[in-house]
Fold this sequence. Notes:
Shape: flat
CATH topology of the largest domain: Cytidine Deaminase, domain 2
Oligomer: single chain
Number of helices: 7
CATH superfamily of the largest domain: Cytidine Deaminase, domain 2
Number of strands: 12
Strand content: 25-35%
Order of helices and strands: EEEEHEEHHHEEHEHEHEE
Amino acid sequence: MGRVTERRKVLRIRDGAVSARPDTLVAEEPLEIRLNGKPLAITMRTPGDDFALAAGFLVSEGVLASAADLQNIVYCAGATADGSNTYNVVDVRTTPGVVLPDFTLERNVYTSSSCGLCGKASLDAVRTTTRWPIADTPPLRVTPELLAALPDRLRAAQRVFDRTGGLHAAALFDEDGQLLDTREDVGRHNAVDKLIGRALQDDALPLSRTVLMVSGRASFELAQKAVMAGIPVLAAVSAPSSLAVDLAAETGLTLVGFLRGSSMNVYAGEERIVLREPAARG
């Protein structure tokens, strides 16, 4: 089975001094996800938590909503000449009776969960397929101070990043700012899928009392995954995309970007942010 990291020889140049040495790199390999035996998608990922990754991807696709929907996940024989297992192909079997959404199972391409959608079609698709509309859930409220503490807590939990400097991370926190789970991957969307997939396997969906913190930017795809899992707050250390902001506004997701130190921008769902009352003037 693939490893999380690999070693490669590099030529190191520091202040004119040259040396050859091994370097630790994050591993990247393709993962083919099959649904009930039929190819569905291929994603580039860091090996590890593959079953959670596949399950989380299918939550985002509207296929799975609870552990009861999932019959099993297995590794399949790879595409090698001798038919040996590459551990790069997984087959997800749904429980008999689970109704699949209307998508083309033969779309065997490098894909993301927003593949084939754009603009208004993307917003409508997510809003109409989510099982747990965020606007309908009991309100979760967080302070700017709590949000400001999350990037450092996420960074402290990034074990592989310390060795490679080449991984994205995603973490779930509860409403008191306590770390619930964290995952790393070469793809930021994969890290989120691994979080959501593990929650599904633990029968913990929807994640309606949590905050999702990501180490990069907040794309439409990440906002979609948060909404599909019932997560009410998405925070990122970098910028959101325009479509992510539109989706957040449409669905009631609280979207926070540029979360650095005590500074942040709230792009949607500001009603969940507890702000101090301005001091009264004498």
